[in-house]
Amino acid sequence: MNFNSFRAYDIRGVYPTDLDEEAFYRIAKAYTYLFHPKIMVVGMDARESGPALKKALTDGFVDAGVNVVDIGGITTDMIYYAVGASEEYSGGIVVSASHNPKEYNGAKMVREKAAAISSDNGLFEIRDIIKADKDKSVTSETKGTVTEKNVFNDYVEHVLSFIDRDVIKPFLLVANANFGYVGRGVQIIADKLGLNLTKLNWEPDGTFPKGTPDPMQETNRAESEELMRKGKFDFAAIWDADADRCMFLDEKGEFISGAYVTALLADVLLTKRGGNNKIIFDPRVIWPTIKVCQQHGAEGIINKSGHAFIKDRMRKENAIFAGEMSAHYYFRENFYADNGVIPFLLVLEQLSRTGKSFSETMQPYMEGHYMSGELNYKVADVQKTIDAVKDRFSKEGAEDFTDGYSLSTDDWRFNIRSSNTEPLLRLNIEARKPGLVEKILAEIEPIIGSKPH
User: Fold this and answer.
1) Residue 360 located in a structural domain
2) I want to staple 288 with a disulfide (CB 3.0 to 4.6 A). Which of 7, 143, 209, 263 is the partner?
3) Does one domain contain both 135 and 15?
């Protein structure tokens, strides 16, 4: 087992060199050593190594005397639903490497009520239990049981509870499942709502025959964009392989940044539930969502990026909604967890209510705002590079160290941080005037010493 596979908020590595069946068996034992669960929910994404790793995980729990509810091939947000919706489950683990290439696999874990497990509250302890061989002491005279359960229909009813399904218009949509399991639930939804779907990469296929299943990469969106521009569609929804993220193209085939979708969804939910609420967002691009919070009299809170960190803060603040530029969207009524289908439904509802196109709907959040988009750099020493940027800019505005280094002035702002999932330096710049993004970028890149990766 490569212990570097234990990351800030999940486990991820190449199968079988970094993570294999023995690793997942021991992860189950270590989870049991630390948390003493009684009933665990397990599932997997579409990866080819998923069945073998899910079986090893299940065997580890069963041999530890823990009962297992196997919900099969799922999206990551379905493990959050299954655990969050039931008082009887102690926690859950989905075997998934999210949007990573096909040779990877991993795990995302939660405790009871879908509370996240991260490096701050158990993930590194599980790693260290295995390192010290303490997991090998976990035995049980009575083996656990395994029960299979299908949660798709219950999950669909749960996500549909976020909207008034009677107002939904029969939109013509492009839906790209990226060869994950999301299509099974979205198909049920489309049938119930009368949506007309043009489906891409709909059947689960863990070989990911069209490349890395990450819609944040422009090359991964190209197929959807081309289809949008050839036809007449209302918008496109593109999910990553485990479908805890949803990304959008407007009716012109233009990609809508998660920073703007966060502002839209915050506006929609604050309008529904009232402004006396809290909205959480990551520090990459913040001004569009802060503007929405100010309009509603809501409290906007900047928090460290990463799904486990966001969920912990949401619970602490009882925030109604949180969004990340990476297209993770979190909802209080979804057990404070992220979900890839609820944003899709809220967009459907908003466009149905207003009668506006997607591009018209997004205009208020985008006008007067300029941004670089996330720029990724390979550098020899991430922290040394961040420190050099700080030395150059620290006297120019207000500093913030919530996640990496942010600096704000009246007219421009940037955030520079280390990736939690890849060996990269990430930079985001936003501005209130044209030309400023390019100006600040021209000053920062010589310090970084390279061009975007």
Assistant:
1) no
2) 263
3) yes
For residues 84 and 114, is the Cβ–Cβ distance under 8 A?
Answer: yes
In this structure, the answer to whether residues 138 and 189 fall within a common structural domain is: no
Question: 438 — alpha (psi -120 to 50), left (phi > 0) or beta?
Answer: alpha
Report the DSSP beta bridge partners of residue 199.
175
Q: Is the whole model's pTM more than 0.85, yes or no?
A: yes
Sheet holding 329-331, edge to edge: 299-302, 278-281, 321-323, 329-331, 337-338
In whole angstroms, give the CA distance from residue 27 to residue 135: 8
Q: Enumerate residues 6+ apart whose C-beta is below 8 A from 391.
A: none
Buried/exposed 316-332: b ≥16 CB within 10 Å, e otherwise? ebebbbbbbbbbbbbbb
The one catalytic residue in 96, 98, 305, 406 is 98
**Are 107 and 50 in the same domain?**
yes
Q: Which domain holds residue 175?
A: 154-255
The string over 126-146, giving b where at least 16 C-beta atoms fall within 10 Å of a residue's C-beta and e elsewhere, is bbebbeeeebeebeeeeebee
Do residue 215 and residue 167 come from a single domain?
Answer: yes
Q: How far apart are CA 199 and CA 248, in angstroms?
A: 14
* Number of domains composing the chain: 3
Q: How many helices (H) and strands (E) does the chain have?
A: 14, 22
Give dist(CA 178, CA 243) in Å, integer.
9
Confidence check: pLDDT of 289 > 70: yes
Cα gap 352→272, rounded to integer Å:
15
Q: Are residues 42 and 143 in the same domain?
A: yes
pLDDT tens-digit series, residues 1-49: 999 999 988 999 999 999 999 999 999 999 999 999 999 999 999 999 9
Please identify, among 220, 255, 290, the residue that sits at the C-terminal boundary of a domain: 255
Strand partners, 407: 399, 414
- Final residue of a domain: which of 255, 277, 296? 255
SS3 355: coil
98 is catalytic: yes
